[in-house]
Amino acid sequence: MSGAHLNPAVSLSFCVLGQVQWGRLVPYCLSQLLGAYVASALVYLVYYDAIMDFSGGDLTVYGPNETASIFATYPSEYMTLGRSFLDQVVGTGMLMLCILCLGEKRNTPAPAELIPPIVAVIVLGISMSMSGNCGAAINPARDLGPRLFTLTAGWGTEVFTCYDYWFWVPLVAPPIGGVMGTFMYLIFIEWHLPDPDQPDNDSALSISETIKQPGPTWEKDVELKSSHF
Amino acid sequence: MSGAHLNPAVSLSFCVLGQVQWGRLVPYCLSQLLGAYVASALVYLVYYDAIMDFSGGDLTVYGPNETASIFATYPSEYMTLGRSFLDQVVGTGMLMLCILCLGEKRNTPAPAELIPPIVAVIVLGISMSMSGNCGAAINPARDLGPRLFTLTAGWGTEVFTCYDYWFWVPLVAPPIGGVMGTFMYLIFIEWHLPDPDQPDNDSALSISETIKQPGPTWEKDVELKSSHF
Amino acid sequence: MSGAHLNPAVSLSFCVLGQVQWGRLVPYCLSQLLGAYVASALVYLVYYDAIMDFSGGDLTVYGPNETASIFATYPSEYMTLGRSFLDQVVGTGMLMLCILCLGEKRNTPAPAELIPPIVAVIVLGISMSMSGNCGAAINPARDLGPRLFTLTAGWGTEVFTCYDYWFWVPLVAPPIGGVMGTFMYLIFIEWHLPDPDQPDNDSALSISETIKQPGPTWEKDVELKSSHF
Amino acid sequence: MSGAHLNPAVSLSFCVLGQVQWGRLVPYCLSQLLGAYVASALVYLVYYDAIMDFSGGDLTVYGPNETASIFATYPSEYMTLGRSFLDQVVGTGMLMLCILCLGEKRNTPAPAELIPPIVAVIVLGISMSMSGNCGAAINPARDLGPRLFTLTAGWGTEVFTCYDYWFWVPLVAPPIGGVMGTFMYLIFIEWHLPDPDQPDNDSALSISETIKQPGPTWEKDVELKSSHF
C-alpha cells in the first residue's frame, strides 16, 4: 500500500516534501521496524546451523568469530564517533539525492517500471562503497530491528552497549542525512528546473509537457507501448 | 509453448492459482526433468576432460576431489535435516513471492519483455545468497534430473544414499515452499489491492484499467506511470 | 551498415536462414577478420609497456610468462582434440539459439533497443562459463585475426603450430555449431509457434497479431522495431 | 541545466560537433573541476579516520602505504611517457565513440531514459579494463580536481612533480582523444548512414524516417527523446 517504503529516513524526507502525510510516518516506521525484526528472525532460523558451526555456540559482538554483525551494523575499530555520524549522514543524503532525481518529471525521469531495480542498484552501490567505515546502515529500521532481534536471541545487551553505546548513530544520523539530501536536491536542482506550467524554453521542453499535448496519434503510440507487457 | 516453465514448484503454484491447468502439471514436470537430465549430459560431455583431470578418474560424492556437486545439490556438513528442509521452503517461497509481484497488473508491474532477465537476476540472487546451506536447488527438476544423470554416468548409488538419503529434501520442500509463498502473496498483498472491476480510488487507478479505456483517458495513464514511485 | 555483424558463425547462420544474402557473407567475414586484426594491434600498442614488463621481452606461447593468450585462444593442457571441437560447437550453438530467441516476433521478443546489451550479456556469460576448456572463442574472426597479428608482431609461427596445429578448431567448429544451433531453434521452437497469418489459438495469441489490430499506421512502426537486429 | 556534462573532453567534442555552444565550454569545465574538488574533499572528510589508520598519518605519493592514488591518477612504474599519453587518447576516444553511437537517430538509438545507466556501464567498463596502465582518468576535471585537493590537504607538491611532472598527461591527452574519437565516428559511421531527408534504401529505413510519417506531433516527441543526453 505504501509503494514499498522500507526506510524511515526516506519516508521522513517524503513527509518533509509533502508527498507523504505526516500522520503516516509513525505507522510506516513501526512497520519497517517490525519487518526488519521478522526478517532477522527468518535469517536466524535458516542459518542457525551455520551460525552455531561458525561461532561454536558462543554468540558475541567482538572477536574473530563474532556473529552480531550479520544482523546489525558496527563501526570499524579506527572510527571516531563524529566521523561515523558524518558517514551515515553522507550515505543517506546521497541515497535521497539519487531517489529524488529518478522521479523528476521535468528532467529526464527514469521509466517508472524500472525505478525499483534502479533503487536496488543505488542501495547496493552505496552499501558496497561505504560499508568499510561502519556498515552502511543508512536506514534506522534496517539497523534497530536486527539489533533488537540479536538482543532477544542470545547476543545479550552488548549489542547496545558496545563501542560506547554506538547504536544510536545509525538511528539518528540517517534521518538527518536524508532531510539534508532532500534540501540539497531542492536548492541545487529542483528550483533551477523550468516551471512546468509555463514552458518558456523550447530546447528543454520537459517530457511531461509534451505528453500533455496529445494529438490523436499520440494515444495510439501510448496504447502500443502500454499494451506490450 | 508453456511460456518457459522450468520449475515444477513454480508450475504447481500457478496450478493452485488457476493460471495453469492441472492436467498440464505432470507433462510439464516430466519435460522439466528430461530437460535437466539432457543438460547434465551435455555438461558432462563438454567438460569430460576437465572432470577426469580434476577427479583423477574417480567419480565420488565425498572428499576434496568430489565432482557430484557439479550436477545435483548436497547439504553442508553442519546442516541438520529439518534446517535444510526449512532452507529449501524459504528459498522457493521467496522465489514465488518475487515472481508473483512482477506480474501484478494492479501494482506497478515490470515490463513484460524484461520479466525473463529480471527472473534470471532473482534466481541468481537466491542462488548466490542461499547456496551456502545446501546448494539452493529450489527446483525439484533441476536437482533430480542431474542426480539421475550422475547415477547413470558412473557416480553410483551414493548420489541418492549419501547424507542419510538426503535427496528427497530438494524434491519435497520446494513445492511446499512455492505454494506457501503463493498463499503469503495472496494474504499479504493480492487481497489488499483495489478491485480491478470497481476502481474507486483515483490515485491508485491500475494500469490495466486505464488501458481498457483507450479514448481521451490516455493522458491519465501517462501521468499515472510517472507518478508510480 | 550490417547491423553490427561481428561473428562469421552468426553471419553464416543468418545466410542459412535467408535473412542475409549469401553474396554478403565473404565481405562480412573479411571485414570481421580485418577488424579483429586492427583491434589486436591497438591493444598491443596501448599495453606494449605492460606486455614487455610481464614477459621480460620474450614473447612466447608456453610457460608461466606466456602472453600469446592475451590475443588468440589456446586449449587447456588436459583437453583432447575432439573435446575442444565439441566445446566450440556447443558454445556457438548456444549463442545462436539465444540470439534467435531474442528476435522471435511470435513469442515475447526482447525490445529492439535492448538487444545489443542483451547479446553482450549472453556473450559475456558464455565467455565466463565456458572459457575454462579452450578460451571460448566461439568466433572464427575473433580468433584468427589476433592470431595473425601475433604471428606478425613477434610471437612467431608457434601461434599456429602449437598444441599440434590446434588453431583450426576455433575456425571450423563455430560455424558448424552456429548452423546446428539454428536448426535446433527451427526444429524445437520456430516450427511449433502459431502461424502469424492464421491465429487459431486465442490464449496464445501472439503479440505481433494483437498489434496488427489497432490501425494501419501502427504496423509500420512495429515491424520496423521488430526487424532491427 | 547542462544535461549532466561531467567531462571536459566530452564537452569539447560536443562543441566541435556544434551541439554545445563554444561559449559554454569554459564555464562547464570550471564547474566540472569545482565539482571534482568538492567531491574529493567530501571523500577525505568521510574517510579521514580510515586514511589516517592506513597511512599512519604520513600522506605520500610513493610506497606501499601511499594514499594519493585514492584521489588523482598516477602511472604504473613500467609506463613510458608516450605510452601513457596514447593510453589516455585511446580510452577517451573509445568513450566518445560509444557515447555518439548511443544517440544516433538514424541507427537504432538506445532509449533516452536508459542512456545515463548505459554511459555509466561504459565508463565502468573502460575504468575496469584500462586502469592497469595509468588509472583510466579519461577526464581532465576528474583528475585535476582531486590532484589540487591533495595539494591543499597535506600531500604536498609531490602530487604534481612526481613521475617527472606526469600530471599534464591526463589533462592534455583526453581532449585530444575525445576529438579524435568524434572524427572517427563521423568518418567511419555517421557519413555512411542514409540521409534522413532522402531515404533511398527501403531495407535500412531508419527509425527517425518512419516516425516522421504518422503525424505532426510525433516529430516533437522523437526529437525530444533523442536530444536528452
UniProtKB/TrEMBL annotation, chains A, B, C, D:
Keyword hit for Zinc: no
One Pfam family recorded for the sequence: MIP
Top-level lineage group: Eukaryota
TM ranges: 25-47, 165-188
Membrane topology note: Multi-pass membrane protein
Catalytic activity entry: urea(in) = urea(out); glycerol(in) = glycerol(out); H2O(in) = H2O(out)
Localization (cell): Membrane
Keyword annotations of the record: Membrane, Transmembrane, Transmembrane helix, Transport
Gene Ontology MF term list: glycerol channel activity; urea transmembrane transporter activity; water channel activity
GO cellular component, one term: basolateral plasma membrane
UniProt cross-references to InterPro entries, sorted A to Z: Aquaporin-like (IPR023271), MIP (IPR000425), MIP/Aquaporin (IPR050363), MIP_CS (IPR022357)
Family: Belongs to the MIP/aquaporin (TC 1.A.8) family.
Descriptive protein name: Aquaporin 10a
Source organism of the structure: Sparus aurata
Highest classification ranks of the organism: Eukaryota, Metazoa, Chordata, Craniata, Vertebrata
